[in-house]
Specification:
alpha/beta, Aspartate Aminotransferase, domain 2, Aspartate Aminotransferase, domain 1, 7-stranded mixed β-sheet
Length: about 375
Amino acid sequence: MKIIPYGRQYISEEDINEVVNVLKSDWLTQGPKIAEFEKAFANYIGSKYAVAVSNGTAALHLSALALNINSGDKVITTPITFAASANCVLYCGGEVVFADIDPETYLLDIKKVRELLDSSPKGTYKGIIPVDFAGRPVNLEAFRKLADEFDCWIIEDACHAPGGYFIDSKGIRHNCGNGDFADLAIFSFHPVKHIAAGEGGMITTNNEILYHKLRNLRTHGIQQNPELRQFNHGLWYYEMQELGFNYRLTDIQAALGKSQLKRANSGLEKRREIAAIYDKNFSDKSYIIKQTGVIPGHAYHLYVVEFKNRKSLYKYLREKNVFAQVHYIPTHLMPYYRKFGWKEGDMPNAEKYYKHCLSLPIYPTLTDEEQNYVIEKIFVFY
């Protein structure tokens, strides 16, 4: 059997043709495809605005800047995430405070967040960054209520969850990243994500002021819109109004992303079918502590299973060309974060999860034969 990764991109002929068309056009970057992709993505998510950027990390950084994180500002996030979710706070001079996960959902535990907020004077914490880990949506209605109580903003890290949704207390559906509850939401277009653009990211919001600030920060803080200029020296004039960055997405990537977006729903449907097969095959197995299962609204970027003897299983599967992966080493235990005093035992639920978790292959082009092979090898191991 050829190598089966935990995730991979699928590039169609239509994708290739869209990219070739851009390569033959007058614009490789800063052209019309950016706005087209932004509009299409905002429509898909259900937000008013979308700002395309160079990657998900840039999206997080710009979001933190737009919300005015300053030196010493404290922000709460989860330890079970890619490090960028926390790093964006440090980029701005802020302080990251981790709260443990809910062992049932693997998501940031709102009860733990409340404990942190209650334990300090109001205003100590500036924001909360919940993560839709593995594609499971955070209940942002509940987090919004908590954030408002303590005057905090919310950045939703929805990199794993385009197409995901949750149902609020009134029975209303809310798509991940639609801006109904979070101030800003961010997405990634890395090859293993639902929508692949090679690299790339998107920030969504319903806040017009934040939208314009993000667009300015994305391009060096330089403004060319005549309506927003503070001075005017002529038609050639542009002005740097604040310190920004070169976090632009190219038209090449935007064309690929927009083309991939057309298959987003079918890809999500396939991911959910794969998840259901895993769930059926691993139900009631004594060597499984917990598995993701079938969850309405889950976007299934990852299908996580907590296995007994995970370390040996990981090694065995790789020997059989099944490249399952561990998501994630708790961020607070990374050597860099340990320098701030974080240590083993600080996040017991996250640390216990890490000892057993394994992400099984799940992506739209995974064949029945390949999935059956993965399942069979796990059966053989145990």
